[in-house]
Amino acid sequence: MSHDSTAVLAIDLGGLVAENRQVLDQLCRFLAGLSAAAYGRPLDPGGRQSLGKHVRHIIDHYEALLAAVPGGRLDYEHRPREAWPERCPREARRRLEAIAAALEVLGDCPGRLTLAYPLEGGGLRHLDTSLGRELAFLTSHSIHHMALLGLLAEGLGVALPESFGIHPSTLRHWASQAPRASA
């Protein structure tokens, strides 16, 4: 029995897109309950930490992937780092919703990408990667930042759902263990 590689890619991307959508939806719900003051408030003496900076960082990475899809060249290093999504939760939410919508059409895109990876001392490596691999990376990368967001938000007194910042694979594991625990 032969497999159609296009169909396999679409199935694999569908699951990865769904996980990323789940993460982006969590972020959107988080942003819906935040004031602009809490969102943009500096949380360290140097002003490098804020809820908005972490969300903007996540947005930048997704937008880098979406920009790379048509030409196949991916560069996470050279991001715009715009201040507006760091200060305005409504703008950040709008961007996250646009990213989520754009992810839905990735199944029609070629899967191969080349990642530009900068090295210490100014060197640059070009690494073969795939759309699927980068979607998996973005899920984990976003969850990592959401875990930090959760800690920062709790320090501000912002209540979060128990599942916020928990990787979808961990949520699946917890769900699979629940029937055993109640038996």
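Next protein, fold it too.
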Amino acid sequence: MSDLEIRPSATHGRGVYATRSFAPGEVVECCPVLVVPAGQRVLLDQTLLYEYYFYWQGGAAAFALGYGSLYNHSHEPLARYRKDFDAGTIHIVAVRAVLPGVEITVDYTNGGTNPLWFAPAT
């Protein structure tokens, strides 16, 4: 993950930053996921971890490893996430040019089609 680093973020405490440029369409990170079965997900909803998982097949929860669960939300993101259920991964893909030193954000509402499950800082 030398192309990325975690640093303090004005958006939400800490964020994922590029250490090199990424072109639109380029995979920023391929994150394996740790899947928590649907029956156990309700327990997560009562903890801080609620804000860090992705909804997965069958009502399960998936934690994106690497930096995957740490990208901050923005309605004007530099990247998007793409779930691959068969491979058990989430890809973070640049949607605009990303320059070194810039925080990489994603839109967790998927263009407004999904509600946010957390309160964004800004």
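About the second fold: The first helix runs from residue 38 to 44.
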